[in-house]
Write a structure and sequence with these properties.
mainly alpha; about 0% strand; elongated
Length: about 200
């Protein structure tokens, strides 16, 4: 096993100081980022379907269709429409949280921009690069790339689970899960979105 860098030890210590398990944070961060691209694609498809449904319902007037579905539609149809809109909004919230955490990561003073570039090029960009391609683009050795990627995933976890989520939780305590409940809260996935 490779020796941990000072940066990785620091990130793990920060995670521990927040009362979280560094391995769990690492794996949840990786899971969220792996599904990011598929989830953003799926949500755009669902938004298009909702828009089309409102357009057809409103006689080619989206605003009229939304008003009808929200106020006058039969209960079952209105409930189904509301569930779909809420599901899309909830998923959009997750995407926004991830985006905020990435901005915070990018602003990190030591390797922040490199961390951001690694995660962006592998998980976020519409056209992902392979690990060797990212290493070449960033002009860093492969061994350094893997070290920085591991550090980036840990720091992203700190940014998301340690700062971004708790800040939002303080603003709206009724709607955002706390860190202790986070492990039981369903994360957005393309499969879960398909039920919207």
């Amino acid at each position: 096993m490779a020796k941990e860098t000072a940066a990785l030890r620091k990130h793990k210590a920060n995670i521990a100081s927040l009362g979280m398990d560094s391995d769990a944070v690492f794996h949840k961060s990786k899971l969220l980022l792996r599904s990011y691209r598929d989830v953003t694609w799926a949500i755009s498809e669902h938004l298009e379907e909702i828009r089309d449904h409102a357009y057809e319902t409103g006689g080619h007037d989206i605003d009229a269709g939304i008003r009808y579905l929200a106020e006058f539609a039969p209960d079952i149809e209105a409930e189904k429409f509301t569930e779909r809109v809420c599901c899309v909004c909830e998923t959009r919230m997750y995407i926004d949280l991830i985006d905020r955490a990435l901005v915070r990561l990018k602003d990190y003073p030591v390797y922040g921009r490199i961390y951001y570039e690694i995660l962006d090029k592998q998980y976020i960009s519409r056209f992902p690069l392979t690990e060797p391609e990212i290493s070449e683009v960033l002009n860093i050795e492969r061994s350094v790339f893997y070290t920085r990627k591991k550090e980036a995933l840990h720091l992203f976890g700190i940014c998301l689970f340690g700062y971004t989520l708790p800040e939002l939780h303080r603003l709206n305590t009724d709607k955002i899960p706390t860190i202790t409940r986070l492990s039981t809260y369903p994360l957005p996935t393309p499969k879960r979105l398909s039920r919207c």
